[in-house]
């Protein structure tokens, strides 16, 4: 074996290197999942805020419409 | 951020990933729920020894052992599946119809259907039977192999013993589950009966079903077969003793992480001791080798006292789901059982620490506090200035130790909770122990619902919140932790292998200890990751020589990667073989290694025990608290109800008990932890899906969650609205009133403010994850609060509609309290506008007038006008005592019966307010009118005044029974003329004269009833309009004053002599220019806004009180009604005025006045003031004033005349039963009243330009022309002296 | 209606995002999802059949890195667009809110006018109203009291509650 490096050891070394790459990939995947989760939570928050404002608006418009159209309140 | 085609390097990829963090992701929701997220990503590199052949340099025996390990793990997996089938078995035979009698025609079909239905289930039971058979054989083969004569001496690794222990534990579980599940036996017997009837089975199948029924029927079958087979193996007790000791060792040194591992150790200890101890064979031929644990204790092989302490410390251990077991019971069943040997566990007097949960709380709380603060410190440190790259080894070590400590803490807390729960399950309470527990309570109810004291429930809630809270905090730092752990593990491993092992290697090479040398070299070769890719050849240590002078330093690489599971296993097992001190007689290897290196290896071995857990940090974090999911499962108790219950109601379910406890006790600190018990459902559902893999269990959890969440939302919203309503009610309550009450505290009546509660963070929850669904709690609460606020306004109005008009003050206060509640709640919830709600409740949106307006009008007409008497002194209308003149007996609707929080908040506050507003109940005065003005607004008041005027018109000249008709009748009866008698007739004489003249009117029956009533109503209308206008102008003035600063009307500043007022005013106006709305909006706002503001400004300025009067119009309207001749009488004969003729109304009024001036003789009779109040006089005087007869009236009134005469002759005699003196007093009083009324009326009539004064018909008379020679001259009266001619 | 929508799209960026950017980004993601699936199969087969395992392995590694970079980029782009969408939505909703507020004020002003007209029918001018000021300046300005310094007496609150009484030093 060349320079005291049995092919077994070469495999082990190669294994370490490969697994390191795998770890890097998995940790970035974790980061991305983390980002997606945060993103998901923020979107839900913003959607809920917009939904809230729209609901209030909708009810306000209903009231106004009722005031203006039905009943002879404007004569 | 770039996507540069095909050749982006790893560095580019990583920059892209880290680029994601730049996007700002704000989430300002207080985090109060457990650790879960939409996407869970778990990378599991556990290879279960598949890659074992790769490590050829490892000691061959351990590689081969690795293969056995992997197959045993598979066995354990399958065992778990069978345990799950048994545990989650629900009896289906009860629901299968049994043929009643043998002749039943369709019984064949029933049986066939039964067989068809039960076939798959029975198949599972068959596979269980075969599995346990095969598992026992495999296990005994393993034991036999290890107990073989020469193998005894060999070293058995700790991991292997542990796996064998796990197998024993599996057998114990399967055995207990089979015993417990009677439904399995019933189902099988139904199947068997059906199969036999159908005779469809061949002989082999028959035999098989016979075995199965025997297998299922005999209790403890698995346990006994296992024991039998084991006893055939000679020396098995020695191996089992090893297993027990290793379990003991691991238990005592806490070498476990998950709670279920700890419990598994205890179960294995109990069950193994039971297996070891056996009955000695009576006849020698029977080759069995049972042994006796007590003999083994004498041979120092087992230390029973330690076991005793453990079994006492942990009396009850969860076996599977909600099935519990007391490990000590195994010992009791051993043949050689001797209670003396077990002082602690055998004694039933002392109770173990397991049930004493509260004692452990302070310690838990303290450890939680310390750890969280330490975690926070690290978190800040990391987020502030540590990028992941440059963390040095020490930091990584610290972080990974922190992670481990965290996991251990969570595990200990979960263990506390689970152990308490399991102890409680096995010790249900009963009606004697716990008073609240009803006699007819069910078994499961007594184990959960009534079995926990309030403190215990709070403690449970607190600990569960700590567990989930810490889990969340650590979950958030997961990436940091896993990075640090990998780096730390790699660094430790490589340092140990490449540096620490050099010394022992050098020693062994020098002293030719080749066995140890081979092990060490194989360890180094299995796992070493040499810095420049290959092992340094010139390392003196490998030759056994010293390092020479210069320190031979080996550079060790640093990577962020962990060893593969097999690598770690091989290294640890080999190292263990080095340090293991029990190696079956032959000299143990540990003697060949000097002390310090031995210690180093041992330390490394211990420390690396936790590495597998740490390397899968995410799974361990979930798994460490996964046992909480068992709090919901109750198959064991369901089984015990023998079919009476398909599923227990939520009141008996632990998570709901905790939630409801928080809701009921309303303790602020616990309120914020309310989502954590709800999170238990998530865990149970997760467990049902991943571990039990049973859809029906998940459906049951889901059904319960749906129900519980509805209940939770309903109760929470109810609590929130009642809390804020009570707060508003208390804030609004009159301070002096409250001080008065506080001064004399009645024992059960206190008005203190509600204890502050933390609903805010609950209300700000916009995305709560329950069973994978994201729920916007803020939205749900908002809808419910909207509805209840609307309802409380409706209730306020309905309460007003159920009482008389004086209750309007209470209505206004109640609306203000609701407005305050609304304002406080709007801080967290986007509620509808309060005014819109008020309009909606008041039905005032599409209709011009609301319910309040209609009820005020209704009350005025039917209750106020006919019944109230006005009193000028107090300026109030008061009801005459118990006399109702209401036309029809009208009743009001009943007040709505609703919960307190729809009204004032709490009962006590309600009582306080009713007391306060009772004082407004008896009368109607300015306060009421101001409120009416505010609530009804211009439109309402206009409506009321119009309607009232219509009524006056009705009363005056309506078709039947109106005043006009009565006047006509009276006019007929009135004496044609009625002179003012001369003084010398003396006042009694005049009195008698009038009495005689007006006799008919006095006797006229309707006068005192109908006419007076009509007059009084007209008077009340006039007075009400007057009071209304005054209140209205007060409201308007306050509005104007509020508006002043925004309209540049500023108060005059003080200026000394020399300063000019205008200059000061100018400076003041500039100072407050910012407030001036119109100019600002013109400058800043849009055109539309400017226009709106200008109109608003105009509306604020132009109010009624600025130059307009309603009362005057009312008078003119009434005047317009008085057109009939009966009011004005005929034209005066002499063209100027009627003196004595009684055709005008004022004459009639004089007569009427005469009638009611007659003093009351008996006390049972009521004076007209009591009956009709001053409204009567107001009506009369108004008509007189409006018809312009005031002066004539005052001049020619009979009573005034009597008054004047009596003043002169001071007579006091009673004639015709009337005491003159008293009559004169009454006349005097009425005269003052009349003049007051005329004063007020003239003020309103004269002031206007179209007032009465201006249009007075002035008739000009020419002075008589004197023509001396006209015969008519001498008809003039001349004084006798002038008549000289 | 469609015409108005079109010119509105020109002026309102939100429709631009809604109509193109987001579907486009999603399409990218879907495509890459499919491609990566195929790529994974290819790599596995390649590794199995290919004699030169090392080369196959390197190729797979390279592919993974590319995949990571592209997916990260696409996610970033997509989330950026979504964030933009939310911001524009906020703007649009607040515009709607102002419009409704104006409507609300116009209606309430109008209803107030009707009320005024109804009450006006009942009211006649009777006296010229001259505004007299309610707040009259004080005859002489109040003089602020001068600040006199008093030493802090620590035992003044002792009798409140059940505190320990300090001996008056």
Summarize the structure.
Chain A has 75 residues and is mainly α. Chain A has one helix spanning 7-68. In chain B, a hairpin with a 2-residue loop joins strand 3 and strand 4 (773-775).
Discrete helix count of chain A: 1
Task: Tell me the major beta sheet of chain A.
Answer: none
Distance between the termini of chain B: 139 Å
What is the general shape of chain A? rod-shaped
Main β-sheet description of chain B:
3 strands, antiparallel
Kindly state the mean pLDDT of chain B as a whole number?
A: 86
Oligomerization state of this entry?
heterotrimer
- Strand elements of chain B, count: 10
Account of the 3D structure:
Chain B: It comes from Ramazzottius varieornatus. Chain B: One of its GO terms (biological process) is regulation of actin filament polymerization. The complex is a heterotrimer of chains A (75), B (1285) and C (169). Chain A is 83% helix and 0% strand. The radius of gyration of chain A is 32 Å and the shape is rod-shaped. Chain A is built from one helix and no strands. The longest helix of chain B is centred in the first third of the chain and has 40 residues, at 107-146. In chain B, the strands form four sheets. A three-stranded antiparallel beta sheet of chain B has the order 5-6-7. The model of chain B is unreliable at 1248-1254 (pLDDT under 50). Chain C has 169 residues and is mainly alpha-helical. In chain C, helix 1 packs across helix 2 (13-49) and helix 2 packs antiparallel against helix 3. Chain C is flat, with a radius of gyration of 39 Å. The mean pLDDT of chain C is 83. At the A-B interface, helix 1 of A face helix 1, helix 19, helix 21, helix 34 and helix 36 of B.
């Amino acid at each position: 074996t060349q320079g005291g490096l049995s092919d077994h050891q070469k495999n082990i070394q190669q294994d370490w290197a490969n697994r390191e790459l795998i770890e890097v990939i998995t940790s970035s995947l974790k980061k991305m999942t983390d980002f997606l989760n945060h993103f998901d939570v923020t979107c839900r928050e913003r959607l809920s805020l917009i939904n809230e404002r729209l609901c209030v608006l909708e009810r306000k418009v209903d009231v106004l419409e009722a005031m203006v159209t039905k009943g002879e309140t404007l004569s | 951020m770039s996507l540069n085609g095909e050749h982006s390097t790893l560095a580019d990829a990583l920059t892209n990933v880290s680029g994601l963090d730049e996007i700002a992701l704000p989430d300002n929701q207080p985090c109060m729920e457990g650790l879960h997220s939409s996407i869970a990503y778990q990378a599991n590199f556990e290879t279960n020894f598949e890659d074992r052949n790769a490590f050829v340099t490892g000691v061959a025996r351990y590689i081969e052992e690795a293969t056995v390990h992997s197959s045993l793990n598979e066995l354990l997996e399958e065992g778990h599946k069978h345990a799950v089938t048994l545990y989650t078995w629900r009896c289906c035979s009860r629901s299968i119809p049994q043929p009643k009698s043998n002749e039943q025609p369709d019984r064949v079909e029933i049986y066939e259907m039964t067989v068809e239905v039960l076939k798959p289930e029975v198949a599972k039971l068959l596979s269980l039977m075969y599995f346990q058979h095969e598992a026992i054989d495999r296990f005994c083969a393993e034991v036999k192999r290890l107990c073989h004569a020469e193998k005894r001496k060999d070293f058995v690794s700790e991991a292997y013993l542990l796996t064998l222990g796990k197998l024993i534990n599996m057998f114990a579980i399967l055995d207990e589950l089979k015993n417990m599940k009677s439904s399995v036996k019933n189902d099988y017997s139904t199947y068997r009966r059906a199969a036999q009837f159908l005779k469809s089975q061949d002989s082999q199948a028959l035999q098989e079903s016979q075995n199965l029924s025997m297998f299922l029927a005999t209790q403890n079958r698995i346990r006994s077969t296992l024991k039998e087979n084991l006893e055939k193996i000679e020396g098995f007790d020695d191996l089992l003793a090893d297993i027990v000791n290793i379990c003991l060792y691991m238990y005592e040194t806490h070498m476990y992480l998950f709670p279920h591992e700890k419990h598994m150790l205890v179960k294995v200890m109990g069950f193994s001791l039971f297996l070891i101890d056996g009955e000695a064979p009576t006849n020698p031929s029977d080759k069995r080798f049972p042994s006796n644990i007590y003999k083994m204790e004498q041979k120092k092989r087992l230390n029973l006292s330690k076991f005793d302490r453990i079994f006492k410390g942990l009396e009850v251990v969860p076996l599977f789901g909600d099935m519990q077991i007391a490990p000590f019971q195994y010992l009791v069943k051993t043949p050689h059982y001797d209670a003396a040997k077990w002082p602690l566990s055998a004694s039933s007097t002392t109770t173990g620490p397991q049930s004493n949960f509260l004692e452990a709380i302070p310690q838990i709380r303290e450890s939680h506090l310390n750890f969280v603060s330490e975690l926070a410190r690290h978190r800040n440190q990391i987020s502030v200035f540590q990028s992941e790259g440059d963390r040095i080894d020490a930091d990584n070590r610290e972080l990974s130790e922190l992670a481990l400590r965290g996991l251990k803490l969570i595990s200990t807390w979960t263990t506390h909770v689970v152990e308490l729960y399991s102890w409680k399950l096995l010790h249900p309470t009963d009606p004697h122990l716990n008073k609240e527990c009803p006699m007819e309570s069910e078994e499961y109810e007594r184990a959960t619902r009534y079995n926990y004291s309030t403190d215990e429930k709070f403690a449970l809630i607190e600990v569960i919140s700590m567990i989930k809270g810490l889990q969340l905090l650590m979950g958030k730092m997961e990436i940091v932790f896993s990075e640090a752990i990998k780096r730390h593990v790699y660094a430790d491993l490589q340092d140990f292998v490449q540096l620490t092992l050099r010394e022992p290697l050098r020693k062994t090479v020098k002293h030719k200890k080749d066995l140890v040398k081979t092990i060490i070299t194989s360890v180094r070769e299995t796992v070493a990751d040499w810095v420049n890719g290959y092992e340094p050849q010139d390392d003196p240590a490998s030759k056994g020589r010293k390092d020479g002078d210069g320190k031979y330093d080996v550079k060790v690489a640093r990577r962020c990667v962990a060893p593969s599971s097999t690598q770690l296993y091989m290294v640890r097992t080999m190292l263990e073989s080095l340090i293991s001190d029990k190696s079956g007689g032959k000299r143990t290897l540990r003697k060949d290694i000097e002390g310090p290196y031995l210690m180093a290896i041992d330390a490394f071995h211990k420390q690396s025990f936790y590495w597998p857990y740490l390397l899968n940090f995410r799974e361990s974090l979930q798994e460490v608290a996964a046992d909480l999911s068992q709090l919901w499962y109750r198959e064991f108790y369901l089984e015990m109800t023998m079919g009476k219950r398909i599923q227990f109601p939520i009141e008996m379910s632990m998570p709901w008990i905790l939630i409801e406890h928080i809701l009921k006790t309303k303790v602020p600190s616990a309120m914020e932890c309310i989502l954590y018990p709800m999170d238990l459902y998530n865990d149970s559902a997760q467990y049902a899906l991943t571990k039990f893999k049973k859809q029906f269990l998940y459906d049951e959890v889901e059904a319960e969650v749906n129900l519980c969440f509805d209940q939770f939302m309903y109760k929470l919203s109810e609590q929130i609205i009642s809390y804020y309503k009570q707060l508003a009610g208390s804030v609004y309550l009159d301070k002096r009133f409250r001080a008065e009450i506080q001064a004399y505290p009645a024992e059960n009546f206190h008005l203190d403010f509600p204890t502050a509660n933390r609903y805010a963070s609950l209300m700000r929850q916009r995305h709560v994850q329950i069973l994978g669904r994201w729920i916007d709690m803020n939205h749900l609460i908002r809808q419910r609060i909207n509805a209840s606020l609307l309802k409380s306004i409706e209730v306020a109005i309905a309460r007003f509609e159920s009482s008389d008009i004086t209750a309007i003050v209470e209505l206004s206060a109640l609306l203000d309290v609701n407005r305050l509640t609304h304002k406080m709640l709007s801080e967290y919830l986007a509620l509808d506008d309060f005014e819109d709600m008020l309009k909606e409740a008041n039905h005032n949106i599409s209709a011009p007038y609301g319910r309040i307006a209609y009820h005020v009008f209704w009350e005025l007409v039917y209750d106020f006008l006919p019944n109230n008497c006005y009193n000028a002194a107090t300026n109030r209308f008061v009801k005459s005592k118990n006399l109702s003149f209401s036309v029809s007996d009208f009743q009001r609707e009943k007040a709505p019966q609703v919960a307190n929080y729809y009204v004032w908040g709490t009962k006590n506050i309600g009582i306080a307010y009713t007391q306060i507003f009772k004082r407004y109940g008896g009368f109607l005065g300015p306060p009421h009118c101001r409120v009416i003005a505010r609530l009804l607004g211009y439109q309402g008041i206009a409506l009321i005044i119009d309607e009232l005027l219509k009524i006056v018109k009705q009363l005056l000249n309506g078709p039947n029974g109106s005043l006009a008709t009565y006047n006509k009748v009276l006019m007929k009866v009135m004496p044609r003329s009625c002179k003012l008698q001369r003084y010398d007739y003396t006042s009694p004489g005049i009195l008698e004269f009038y009495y005689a003249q007006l006799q008919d009117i006095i006797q006229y029956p309707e006068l005192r009833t109908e006419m007076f009533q009509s007059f009084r109503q007209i008077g009340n209308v006039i007075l009400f309009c007057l009071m209304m206008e005054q209140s209205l102008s007060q409201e308007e003035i306050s509005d104007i004053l509020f508006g002043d600063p925004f309209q540049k009307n500023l108060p005059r500043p003080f200026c000394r002599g020399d300063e000019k007022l205008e200059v000061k005013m100018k400076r003041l106006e500039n100072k407050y220019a910012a407030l001036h709305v119109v100019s600002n909006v013109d400058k800043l706002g849009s055109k539309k806004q400017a226009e709106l503001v200008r109109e608003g400004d105009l509306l604020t300025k132009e109010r009624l009180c600025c130059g307009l009067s309603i009362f005057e119009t009312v008078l003119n309207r009434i005047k317009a009604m008085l057109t009939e001749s009966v009011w004005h009488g005929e034209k005066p004969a002499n063209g100027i005025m009627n003196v004595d003729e009684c055709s005008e109304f004022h004459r009639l009024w004089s007569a009427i006045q005469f009638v009611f001036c007659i003093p009351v003789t008996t006390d049972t009779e009521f004076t007209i003031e009591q009956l009709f109040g001053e409204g009567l006089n107001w009506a009369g005087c108004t008509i007189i004033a409006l018809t312009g007869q005031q002066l004539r009236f005052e001049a020619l009134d009979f009573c005034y005349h009597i008054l004047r005469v009596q003043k002169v002759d001071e007579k006091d005699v009673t004639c015709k039963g009337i005491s003159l003196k008293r009559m004169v007093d009454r006349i005097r009083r009425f005269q003052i009243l009349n003049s007051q009324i005329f004063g007020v009326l003239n003020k309103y009539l004269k002031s206007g330009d179209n007032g009465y004064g201006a249009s007075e018909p002035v008739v000009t008379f020419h002075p008589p022309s004197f023509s001396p020679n006209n015969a008519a001259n001498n008809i003039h009266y001349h004084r006798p002296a002038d008549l000289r001619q | 209606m469609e015409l108005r929508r079109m010119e509105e799209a020109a002026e309102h960026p939100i429709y631009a995002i809604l109509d193109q950017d987001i579907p486009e980004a999603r399409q990218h993601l879907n495509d890459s999802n499919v491609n990566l699936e195929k790529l994974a199969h290819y790599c596995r087969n390649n590794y199995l059949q290919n004699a030169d395992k090392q080369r196959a392995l390197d190729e797979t590694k390279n592919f993974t890195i590319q995949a990571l970079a592209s997916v990260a980029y696409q996610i970033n782009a997509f989330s950026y667009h979504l964030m933009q969408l939310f911001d524009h939505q906020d703007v649009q909703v607040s515009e709607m809110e102002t419009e409704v507020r104006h409507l609300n004020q116009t209606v309430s002003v109008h209803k107030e006018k009707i009320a005024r007209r109804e009450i006006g029918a009942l009211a006649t001018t009777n006296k010229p109203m001259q505004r007299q000021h309610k707040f009259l300046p004080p005859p002489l300005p109040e003089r602020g009291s001068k600040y006199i310094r008093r030493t802090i007496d620590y035992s003044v609150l002792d009798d409140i509650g059940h505190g320990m009484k300090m001996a008056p030093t």
